[in-house]
Design brief:
The chain is an alpha/beta fold. It has two domains: 119 residues, NAD(P)-binding Rossmann-like Domain (Rossmann fold, 3-Layer(aba) Sandwich); 190 residues, Dihydrodipicolinate Reductase, domain 2, CATH 3.30.360.10. The strands form two sheets. The protein has a nine-stranded mixed sheet with strand order 14-13-12-11-7-10-9-8-15, with helices on one face. It has a six-stranded parallel sheet with strand order 3-2-1-4-5-6, with helices on both faces. The longest helix is centred in the C-terminal third of the chain and has 20 residues.
């Protein structure tokens, strides 16, 4: 059992705490957040962890072995470096950082300190993603041609202009950072490094100054292509489809919708699955229900305790940031951009 502190107690920070309830691998004993409200105090009391006045206070706590960061994206890099200096293991919510340089500095810091760093790309841990990975590696889909992903939610229709998620610096290219990075991580996991990208991103229905419609073309170094679309002002949805010379497989589900029940946000992200071979009938089934947020936290805790390494290698963490950085450059330049 590892003692952890939650840093950031917005709706997603609370969801992470709820995911760890009754876990035998990780427990939250402390927490810190920028704004302490009566609601936050009640939540902390309910989940039996003490509130501390600052991140620095969290890092000074001797009984806290790990920090879980559910903070604004722009803070992640410096917070990971500070945690490593304090010899704390780090679980960092996605996206990792906003620039490749920050990601490299953060990884260098945890390597030097000898602590574990994990990222919150929880969809990678779902059994259906494991099955898809094994099918690809076993050649059951043949030569991979293309991966296509669409991720949508309505959150921007209801967000306050003063919320940090409404800041274009924190969430460039609309749904890319809160949602699309999951798909990019999946593409890297299944198909390897991404070579270049082309993106367009704009606002159609958002009432705040933020893009709500983003589409991205990607080309992998191994030759297959990819498409990622995100929309933040429509109904929730998730579709991840891999096309191969022997058939295609599609995973469907929903995205993390603010205001939905904690159970839905944690366990119902995958739904209908369908495999259509080149010859023969399609096979359709329902994905198993799994709290993938809990799975990610427990996988991190076991890695920090000396168990199997967290399944996202550091080079893939850095590459994922380099891809999102290239996407933002492309949306601004209107040109194809190489992933640096």
């Amino acid at each position: 059992m590892i003692n952890a502190a939650i840093v950031g107690l917005g709706w997603w920070g609370k969801t992470l705490v709820e995911s760890a309830a009754s876990s035998d691998a990780i427990r939250f004993v402390a927490g810190a957040t920028r704004t302490v409200t009566p609601e936050v105090e009640t939540f902390a009391k309910k989940h039996s962890f003490r509130l501390l006045p600052s991140y620095e206070a969290v890092l000074a706590e001797r009984d806290v072995a790990a920090v879980v960061l559910a903070t604004p994206h722009s803070m992640h890099g410096a917070q990971v470096v500070a945690a490593a200096a304090a010899h704390k293991h780090v679980f960092c919510e996605k996206p990792f950082t906003l620039t490749k340089r920050e990601a490299e500095d953060a990884v260098a810091a945890v390597r030097k300190a000898g602590v574990t760093l994990a990222l919150g790309y929880n969809r990678r841990l779902h059994p259906e993603m494991h099955k898809l990975r094994e099918m690809i590696r076993a050649g059951e889909l043949g030569t991979i041609l293309h991966i296509e992903t669409t991720m949508t939610f309505p959150n921007v229709l209801f967000i306050s202009p003063s919320h940090w998620r409404a800041d274009k610096h924190e969430t460039p290219c609309g749904g890319l950072m809160p949602m699309g990075v999951h798909a990019i991580d999946g593409m890297i996991d299944l198909c390897g490094p991404i070579d270049h990208v082309f993106a367009q991103s704009f606002r159609r229905a958002a009432t705040i100054d933020a893009d709500d419609t983003t589409s991205i073309l990607l080309r992998m170094k191994e030759g297959m292509s990819g498409y990622l679309g995100t929309m933040t002002t429509t109904g929730p949805g998730f579709s991840f489809q891999v096309f191969g010379s022997k058939g295609w497989l599609r995973l469907e589900g929903v995205t993390h919708v603010a205001g939905a029940s904690s159970d839905e946000r944690r366990t119902r992200l995958f739904g209908t699955c369908k495999f259509q071979p080149v010859k023969g009938e399609a096979k359709t089934w329902q994905a198993v229900s799994l709290d993938i947020s809990r799975a990610a936290l427990e996988t991190f805790a076991k890695a920090a305790a000396g168990g199997p390494a967290f399944p996202i290698p550091y080079d893939q963490m850095i590459h994922g940031v380099a891809v999102t950085e290239a996407i933002v450059r492309s949306a601004n330049s209107g040109k194809v951009e190489q992933v640096m």
